[in-house]
């Protein structure tokens, strides 16, 4: 019995010990789990304030012990909030996805993006973005996107650098056209020449700006000179008119005083004749009459001599006045003629290109407007041609600016000589010329234009003992219904562009 009791006791003890081990293990597990839950809850911190509060309460409840009854309401609350949080995260993920997609598409539009960056971007947008599971997956995608953004930015910066280099030749050529159009004399001509050299030698926008300021200064100096000369002409005109006025007034005054003297002389002569008449009738003897008549006749003759002298003086005076007036008017006339001549010369010069002596762009615009009006009103056939010297920059670069200038002069002369009298050729600017072929349909213009091209090609240019072949590209179009001058010009320009693209030294037309 005792033995049975001991066995039972031992078993019970063993069971209690085993239970204790299990209890301890469980307690340890619960502790680990509760610590894990607390840590996990901490990792959610910052997502949502409400959730943070609940989790803090949950953690402090956990610290007091793992009493499920106590923890249950917190767990329910936290679960509810986590569900809400999940929905928020999904919406956020959708927004993030859209933003990344938009940003990526914008990036794809950037010019000059390196090929590998463009490929990586395409892959990112087409594949990687579709495999996103959580917001964390965005992290590597966003960092890739930042790298591509960086590359795009560099491409943009490089583009703006070359952008400046591209703008410069245009600026230089505009300035060159302006400088070429200025026809000044003496010192100003020399200054303009220096500026033109500066423009072709330029390697910075600053230098172009200096050239532009130089041109403006010369123009303003010349305007002021012109104004001074006009002013001095007006002053001298005014002086001459004033002198004329004085001269006429003094002649009139002189005539008035003479006329008073005439009056009194006439009256005295009249009186003497009357007197003579009376005394003749009253005379009683021939000898008395003779004496009387002799006396009166002498007095009359004196009066007549005085009158004649007066008349002579007046005639002389008038003649002198007329001579004086005549001289002044002639001098004024000659001044006026000189001034008119200068104005005409100025106008002529302002329509002439200084370097080639061909009509300039302003003259072309005027003529094109005139021909365009004829085309509109009479439907006349008009072919517009744009001519550009090929690789002209390399002539300047290789043989110098003066050689470039000379080339333009020779080409201009050859062009002028080769076109018909009724055609109008002008230097449009830089190495570009324009030609208006009146009464000429496009199909018929091709042959003479081909001839023109060959003429230029056959000119034996020689620089630094080297024979150089210089060619031109030609673009032509015919004015057609609905055209504006600009549309037609753009069409001719397009044809020229094609001629350049197809290898230069050719004639291309655009219908
Ligand atoms: N010597 C000289 N050069 C000029 C004059 N006007 C413009 N230029 C130069 O003409 C050159 C024109 O060069 P681009 O527009 O690059 O053309 P291009 O070298 O002729 O080449 P393509 O037209 O493409 O065949 C520029 O270098 C200008 O500086 C000028 O009056 N005299």
Automatic annotation (TrEMBL):
The keyword Coiled coil applies. It is an enzyme of class 2 (transferase). Gene3D superfamilies: 3.30.70.270. It catalyses: 2 GTP = 3',3'-c-di-GMP + 2 diphosphate. Keywords: Coiled coil. Residues 380-511 form the GGDEF domain. It comes from the Bacteria. SUPFAM superfamilies: Nucleotide cyclase. SMART domains: GGDEF. Residues 259-342 form a coiled coil. Pfam families: DGCcoil, GGDEF. InterPro entries: DGCcoil (IPR048516), Diguanylate_Cyclase (IPR050469), GGDEF_dom (IPR000160), Nucleotide_cyclase (IPR029787), Rev_trsase/Diguanyl_cyclase (IPR043128). Its EC number is 2.7.7.65. This is diguanylate cyclase.
């Amino acid at each position: 019995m005792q033995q049975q009791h001991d066995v039972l006791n031992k078993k019970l003890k063993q069971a209690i010990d085993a239970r204790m081990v299990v209890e301890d293990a469980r307690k340890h597990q619960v502790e680990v789990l509760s610590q894990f839950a607390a840590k996990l809850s901490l990792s959610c911190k910052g997502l949502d304030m409400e959730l943070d509060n609940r989790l803090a309460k949950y953690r402090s409840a956990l610290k007091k012990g793992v009493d499920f009854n106590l923890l249950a309401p917190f767990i329910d609350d936290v679960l509810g909030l986590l569900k809400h949080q999940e929905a928020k995260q999904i919406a956020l993920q959708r927004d993030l996805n859209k933003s990344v997609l938009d940003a990526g598409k914008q990036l794809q539009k950037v010019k000059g993006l390196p090929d590998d960056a463009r490929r990586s971007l395409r892959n990112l947008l087409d594949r990687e973005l579709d495999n996103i599971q959580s917001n964390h997956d965005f992290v590597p995608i966003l960092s890739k996107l930042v790298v591509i953004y960086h590359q795009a930015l560099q491409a943009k910066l490089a583009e703006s650098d070359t952008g400046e280099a591209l703008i410069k030749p245009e600026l230089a050529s505009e300035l060159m056209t302006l400088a070429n159009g200025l026809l000044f004399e003496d010192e100003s001509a020399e200054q303009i020449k220096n500026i033109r050299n500066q423009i072709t030698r330029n390697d910075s926008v600053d230098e172009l700006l200096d050239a532009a300021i130089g041109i403006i200064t010369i123009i303003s100096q010349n305007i002021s000179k012109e104004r001074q000369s006009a002013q001095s002409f007006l002053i001298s005109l005014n002086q001459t008119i004033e002198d004329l006025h004085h001269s006429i007034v003094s002649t009139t005054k002189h005539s008035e005083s003479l006329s008073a003297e005439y009056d009194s002389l006439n009256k005295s002569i009249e009186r003497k004749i009357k007197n003579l008449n009376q005394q003749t009738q009253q005379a009683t003897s021939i000898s008395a009459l003779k004496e009387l008549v002799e006396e009166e006749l002498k007095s009359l003759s004196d009066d007549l001599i005085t009158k004649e002298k007066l008349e002579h003086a007046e005639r002389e005076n008038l003649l002198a006045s007329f001579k004086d007036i005549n001289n002044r008017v002639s001098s004024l006339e000659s001044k006026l003629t000189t001034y008119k001549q200068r104005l005409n010369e100025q106008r002529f010069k302002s329509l002439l290109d200084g370097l080639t002596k061909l009509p300039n762009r302003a003259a072309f615009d005027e003529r094109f407007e005139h021909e365009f009006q004829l085309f509109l009103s009479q439907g006349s056939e008009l072919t517009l041609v744009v001519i550009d010297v090929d690789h002209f920059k390399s002539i300047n670069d290789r043989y110098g600016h003066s050689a470039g200038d000379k080339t333009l002069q020779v080409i201009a002369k050859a062009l002028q000589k080769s076109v018909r009298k009724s055609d109008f050729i002008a230097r449009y600017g830089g190495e570009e010329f324009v030609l208006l072929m009146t009464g000429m349909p496009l199909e018929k213009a091709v042959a003479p234009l081909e001839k023109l091209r060959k003429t230029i090609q056959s000119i034996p240019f020689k620089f630094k003992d080297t024979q150089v072949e210089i060619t031109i590209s030609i673009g032509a179009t015919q004015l057609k219904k609905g055209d504006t001058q600009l549309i037609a010009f753009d069409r001719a320009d397009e044809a020229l562009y094609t001629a350049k693209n197809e290898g230069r030294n050719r004639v291309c037309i655009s219908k």
